[in-house]
Structure formats: structure tokens, C-alpha cells
Specification:
By secondary structure, the protein is of the alpha/beta class. Helices cover 32% and strands 16% of the residues. The protein contains twelve helices and 14 strands. An eight-stranded parallel β-barrel has the order 3-4-5-10-11-12-13-14, surrounded by six helices. Strands 1-2 form a two-stranded antiparallel sheet. The chain has a two-stranded parallel ribbon with strand order 6-9. Helix 1 runs parallel beside helix 2, helix 4 packs parallel to helix 7 and helix 8 packs across helix 9. It is globular, with a radius of gyration of 19 Å. The model has no long low-confidence stretch (mean pLDDT 96). The structure holds flavin mononucleotide (FMN). Flavin mononucleotide binds next to strand 4 and helix 11.
Length: 358
């Protein structure tokens, strides 16, 4: 299978084209990763590339309980146990740098969440006290936006200290950078809102800051064109994301990571260009990871037809630490248990059996 062949990602040789997609698991007490997380990731070092769960770049960047941050020295030390374990198991791991913007709750950090504009998502969110409505966020000032860029720069440096092999800027799934990109959430009239160039400005400035730390060939970016989760919307996703992808192409990034919206019909416009991954291929000349509801056969087709170079798996990787080997032999897959996706301990986290153990 082409999916199981090695892939040269800049200076990194990936042992296969299967990516463990980023997954928040809310198992880092006090927002610090540790031994349990190290065991979980090392079990999944079978992937060509692991992208860590979103790791917040600041206290206000956290939206959910028990998500590991990367802004304190203690958090860096916690992540070091993870990267050491992954490297000992011959894995490659990037840190997903994350700021949730409006997708947060005061119960996590005691403050009102921030956003490009004061527009509530109109949804409930997981909190330590169960599901609660997300409050209306506070609009970020220009000075605070400069501060956010600085937080990403420092987090990128921290990720280096923590021993990661690179970083992925989380520009997807309705979080802060996506909120700036899309018209439904960004009503600003300054240099960070309005035209597509201005809405993409924060994403690009963050990427430039992170590139300065790592070099662009160790930096990936995740986007979810046309995603409507978390109350997101855009007047013209092809224009918005086409512009952002083209601008990102100029940097020579490690990769662009696209979340497909295959489970539903892509929003108007994106269907005409063949969906998010095809849009990316038409404007971005570097490595493309595609993710979203892939299975063994559709992933093999994606890499065989060069629709994408690498394929991300989230829920199947969660439940199958030896996913590439299962693909190789055509084995059945363990089913993930949704009840243990978020929060808790080892159960539903490090106890999914490999083929050898089954
Ligand atoms: C439990 C869980 C947590 C997730 N957390 C993140 C995250 O932290 N960052 C992110 O970009 N996507 C996150 N996702 C989205 C996945 O990376 C992926 O795009 C999505 O699940 C579709 O892939 P799949 O069909 O292979 O599961 C999460 C998905 C799941 C199931």
C-alpha cells in the first residue's frame, strides 16, 4: 500500500503516510501533560507523524478543563516526558499550538473568553460542571492581538525546549485563528477584519512568528474550510480559504493540514471546486495532509491518486494504537468508546489492545 510507504517531510523521514490527527482528550490535570499522556502517545508512535492534541499557548487560550498547555515551564517539562517517550518508540511528534478564542468558559480561567468580535457561538460547552452555555466573548484590542502573536511565538519556543519535532498552528475548527478568518465571526473594521487579506492577517502573522523560531519546514498549519461546527460561517469559503492557502504557500511550510467536510455536503462554492482538499491542492504546492472520516481504502485512494500526500486519522487512531499494522494485514478495528473520549484516566485511553494483545 502506498499509504504505508515512507514519506520525506522536509528533513524528516516518516515511516508511513498515516498521521495521528490531533485529539483533545482532557487528561492533563492542572493543564500539565505527564506520564499517562506519554504512554498514550508512545503507543501510537506507529504513525508516520503524530500531531498532538491542541495545547494552549496561554491561560486564556484554554477552553476546556484538563487540556495541557505549553506556556509554563512545568507544562514544558510535562511535554518533555511525552516527546521522550515518543522518540524512544521511534515516533515523530508535532505540537498543535492552540488558542480557543470564543470557544471557552470562565470556569476554566475565571475570565470572559476573547474573540475578533463580540459574537457568541450560540452553543454549550464542556466544563468541569457539565455542559454550559458559552458566554458572549470580549473583542480583542489591537494591543491584545499583538500579545496573542507573541504568545504563539513563545509557545513555539517552548515546544522546541519540550523536544517536539515541529509545530502545527491550529487554524481550524472554529477556534481563534479560524474566527478571524471567517466572515461570520469577524466584524472588525481595523486591519484584522473586512477584506479577506485583513481577515487572514492574524493567521499569517502567527505563522511568521512561529516560522522565525522553527524555520518554516518544521511548521504545519491546520485549516477547516467551510466548517460550520462551533457556529462558524463564511460568505465565500472558496475566496477566504483559497486566499489563505495561497498566502501560506509562499512560506515553504512543512505541510497544510486540511479537515474535510465530507460527512455533509461541502458549503456552497466548495462543492464546485471539489471540496477543501482539492481546493488546497490547486493553490498550495507543498505537502498536504487530509483528514476527516477516512478509512483504509479511502485513505489509500487519496494518496494513490495524489489527492493528498498524507492522511490523518483521529477516532480510528484513538482506538487502535497499531493502526498502520491493522491496515497492512487488513485486520478489523477496535471501536472507540465515545463515553471516554474526554476526561478520565487510563480507561478508554491507554487500554485499547493491539493485534498482539487481542
Ligand atoms: C476526541 C476528539 C478530539 C479532537 N480534538 C481535536 C484537537 O485538539 N485539534 C484539532 O484540530 N482537531 C481535533 N479533533 C478533530 C480530529 O482531528 C479530526 O479532524 C476529526 O475527528 C475527523 O477525523 P476522523 O473521522 O478520523 O475522526 C478531535 C476529534 C476527536 C474525535
Amino acid at each position: 500500500m502506498r499509504l504505508l510507504q515512507p514519506y520525506q517531510l522536509g528533513s524528516l523521514t516518516l515511516k508511513n503516510r498515516v498521521v495521528m490527527a490531533p485529539m483533545t482528550r482532557s487528561r492533563a490535570p492542572e493543564h500539565v501533560a505527564g506520564d499517562l499522556n506519554a504512554t498514550y502517545y508512545a503507543q501510537r508512535a506507529t504513525a508516520g507523524l503524530i500531531v498532538s492534541e491542541g495545547t494552549q499557548v496561554s491561560e486564556l487560550g484554554a477552553g476546556y478543563p484538563w487540556t495541557p498547555g505549553i506556556h509554563t515551564d512545568e507544562q514544558v517539562a510535562g511535554w518533555r516526558t511525552v516527546t521522550d517517550a515518543v522518540h524512544a518508540a521511534d515516533g515523530v511528534i508535532f505540537a498543535q499550538l492552540w488558542h480557543v478564542g470564543r470557544m471557552g468558559h470562565p470556569s476554566v480561567h475565571g475570565e470572559t473568553p476573547v474573540a475578533p468580535s463580540a459574537i457568541a457561538p450560540g452553543e454549550d460547552i464542556f466544563t468541569p460542571d457539565g455542559m454550559q452555555p458559552i458566554p458572549t466573548p470580549r473583542e480583542l484590542s489591537l494591543g491584545e492581538i499583538a500579545g496573542v502573536i507573541e504568545q504563539f511565538r513563545i509557545a513555539a519556543q517552548q515546544a522546541k525546549t519540550a523536544g517536539f519535532d515541529g509545530v502545527e498552528v491550529h487554524g481550524a475548527n472554529g477556534y481563534l485563528l479560524d474566527q478571524f478568518l471567517q466572515t461570520g465571526t469577524n466584524k472588525r473594521t481595523d486591519g484584522y477584519g473586512g477584506s479577506v487579506a485583513d481577515r487572514a492577517r492574524l493567521l499569517l502573522e502567527v505563522v511568521e512568528a512561529v516560522n522565525e523560531v522553527w524555520g518554516a519546514d518544521r511548521v504545519g498549519v491546520r485549516l477547516s474550510p467551510g466548517g460550520t461546527f462551533s457556529g462558524m460561517s463564511d460568505d465565500d469559503p472558496v475566496d477566504t480559504f483559497g486566499h489563505a492557502m495561497k498566502a501560506l504557500d509562499a512560506y515553504g511550510l512543512a505541510y497544510l493540514h486540511i479537515v474535510e467536510t465530507s460527512q455533509t455536503l461541502p458549503p456552497v462554492g466548495l462543492d464546485e471546486v471539489g471540496g477543501p482538499t482539492r481546493l488546497a491542492r490547486s493553490v498550495f504546492s507543498g505537502t498536504i495532509i487530509t483528514a476527516g472520516e477516512y478509512d483504509r481504502d479511502s485513505a489509500e485512494e487519496a494518496v494513490a491518486t495524489e489527492a493528498a500526500d498524507l492522511v490523518g486519522f483521529a477516532r480510528q487512531y484513538l482506538a487502535n494504537p497499531d493502526l498502520p499494522e491493522r491496515f497492512r494485514v487488513g485486520a478489523d478495528l477496535n471501536e472507540g468508546d465515545q463515553a471516554t473520549f474526554y476526561g478520565g484516566g487510563a480507561e478508554g485511553y491507554t487500554d485499547y489492545p493491539t493485534l498482539d494483545e487481542a
